[in-house]
């Protein structure tokens, strides 16, 4: 990720917090010429420089910008609106603490994104895929201190001998290297490299992809209206039937913009290609990624999510067979558990009840979760089928076989060293622990977003798994909070704060409609 993106993120945080009417509301000063210039450059980074001039000339308080942007301020064409919304959304999701104003650097002004507009790779980051990818966040949140404090030894098979794993796989050191190689006198060279690295990497990137499900037989038989139109790869409109005061029926259209919109003709393979596939190589670069599907019962979450882990495993196994990883004893591990009614159950160990604990470093550990080494795709398939069969399902009005729990399947790449490898043969229990986590991808198939979908008292007709049905109903939303903690290892702290709310408030991950 280039410096340009990082600087944009800082601006976003301030604007976003202001929109939330937080303390920044009072803290920010009146717009200055410098502020206008900053805003102009920010818009320019998305190729929207022409929208900046009215701001500069009328000296509008830059704190009001989010509201203006939400109203489609100045943007005329659909493409402009799309850019504006992407710009806003990018900023909204990227901030960390929120109190820092946008401060451009020579690097941010010198990048190629100005000429390329929003779509340049610089602006979007190094890669831009995955329902939720957290490639660029702070490493200290990706891996435990233990891993970070112990750098990997250099592999004798690696070219250059003295190069360490860190050099080759740590995005920070690679970035640093690139920056040094590219450096010329005009390029910004940070005085405090550590601080810069921390800031540069403390950015979460999220990709939100919407998939439209075709009308099912029941809906077709009832001649129900298709209320969603996907009209290009990033836009959709929702048609809301309404009545005027004189009771004349009309349809109100709401347009939404996402990173990608997949229509009803898209196959599961295409979903994989758009979302997970591009993340796979980064799992070997110390990335922890999470991919989840969100929607109400019957919207197609399980249909969409279920094929993804197997496809990912195929690609991960293929990568692991490359000499560079094989020589370093990289291995793939799989675990699968569910959260139901606020409790955790191991889907691969006869639904053994699991405990979730937080260690002294605020790392969430699932105590007792079994991890299995998987060296080929057939084994992965068998584990997934076993886990799926053990899941809590029930029947809802909209889905005969409805997932009533959150299921989390994790594929973890670990690096093993030979000494520990021999020990592990004597001590199977510690097998999984003997490897160091290189990267991880978690797939979460959520229970429906309707209230109480994941609680034991949600539906009288729901036929629970016998062990589950004996439990007392937990308080509402407790499973969502448990889920947030369970994936905590993957999420940077700003996101963590919002996740439980996001999961219970369907609209919080969506953007407001574009007013045409
Ligand atoms: N894109 C699609 N194409 C064809 N059929 C689909 C598609 N998406 C979903 N379906 C079908 O719709 C039904 C409901 O889908 P699914 O079980 O995935 O919903 P869900 O969102 O997981 O619901 P719940 O929250 O109740 O578990 C299933 O029979 C599934 O096969």
Automatic annotation (TrEMBL):
<feature type="binding site">
    <location>
        <begin position="295"/>
        <end position="302"/>
    </location>
    <ligand>
        <name>ATP</name>
    </ligand>
</feature>
<protein>
    <recommendedName>
        <fullName>Kinesin-like protein</fullName>
    </recommendedName>
</protein>
<comment type="similarity">
    <text>Belongs to the TRAFAC class myosin-kinesin ATPase superfamily. Kinesin family. KIN-13 subfamily.</text>
</comment>
<dbReference type="GO" id="GO:0007019">
    <property type="term" value="P:microtubule depolymerization"/>
</dbReference>
<keyword id="KW-0206">Cytoskeleton</keyword>
<keyword id="KW-0067">ATP-binding</keyword>
<dbReference type="Pfam" id="PF00225">
    <property type="entry name" value="Kinesin"/>
</dbReference>
<feature type="compositionally biased region" description="Basic and acidic residues">
    <location>
        <begin position="451"/>
        <end position="462"/>
    </location>
</feature>
<dbReference type="GO" id="GO:0005874">
    <property type="term" value="C:microtubule"/>
</dbReference>
<dbReference type="GO" id="GO:0005524">
    <property type="term" value="F:ATP binding"/>
</dbReference>
<keyword id="KW-0505">Motor protein</keyword>
<dbReference type="GO" id="GO:0008017">
    <property type="term" value="F:microtubule binding"/>
</dbReference>
<keyword id="KW-0493">Microtubule</keyword>
<keyword id="KW-0963">Cytoplasm</keyword>
<dbReference type="InterPro" id="IPR027640">
    <property type="entry name" value="Kinesin-like_fam"/>
</dbReference>
<feature type="domain" description="Kinesin motor">
    <location>
        <begin position="205"/>
        <end position="516"/>
    </location>
</feature>
<feature type="region of interest" description="Disordered">
    <location>
        <begin position="497"/>
        <end position="516"/>
    </location>
</feature>
<dbReference type="InterPro" id="IPR019821">
    <property type="entry name" value="Kinesin_motor_CS"/>
</dbReference>
<dbReference type="GO" id="GO:0003777">
    <property type="term" value="F:microtubule motor activity"/>
</dbReference>
<keyword id="KW-0547">Nucleotide-binding</keyword>
<dbReference type="InterPro" id="IPR027417">
    <property type="entry name" value="P-loop_NTPase"/>
</dbReference>
<dbReference type="GO" id="GO:1903338">
    <property type="term" value="P:regulation of cell wall organization or biogenesis"/>
</dbReference>
<dbReference type="GO" id="GO:0007018">
    <property type="term" value="P:microtubule-based movement"/>
</dbReference>
<feature type="region of interest" description="Disordered">
    <location>
        <begin position="449"/>
        <end position="481"/>
    </location>
</feature>
<dbReference type="InterPro" id="IPR001752">
    <property type="entry name" value="Kinesin_motor_dom"/>
</dbReference>
<dbReference type="InterPro" id="IPR036961">
    <property type="entry name" value="Kinesin_motor_dom_sf"/>
</dbReference>
